[in-house]
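thoughts on these tokens:
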Amino acid sequence: MIPTSLVLLDFQNDFFSGGEFEIPGSLFAAKKAHAILQCFRDHGGHTVHVQHENRTNGLSFCVPGTEGIRIHDLVAHYEGEPIAYKNSSDAFDHSELDALLRSARTSRVLLCGIQHEMTIAQTAKAAFSLGFQVILIQDACAGMVDSQLVELKQFCTVQNTEKILLSLSMERGY
């Protein structure tokens, strides 16, 4: 069994309907991410939530102290699940993400989330360059365009939720 972590990128209220910077497909992606997150929780898998914090003056989304910065209820953070806070498109840049993954002895990362400012693409590339095997859960991502997926295939494997769940069940006997 390959030590695997689920990384949930920027599933924050501001990127959903009614938020400051709605990303099309966010609710659909969060529903898919919820299924995988629940599988990880049910079977003791390692998960890391990544939360964007805009600390730059003038930006209106993901501002600390607002409702918009909170992780969406569908994939809400549970006590004991780590959160890596970031302020750039690369979730590894100036955050604890690498340390959290290494402390869990992770060698494979499953990525899903909200693509704003190239977050998913930059994080997938960074994870690959740090030596992780990267699997992008395509239907659990919002804001991606086909040209980005084509480019990302050189850094990661692209799969859908159902295939991920099937693979996990076969690996771990779920």
The chain has a mean pLDDT of 93.
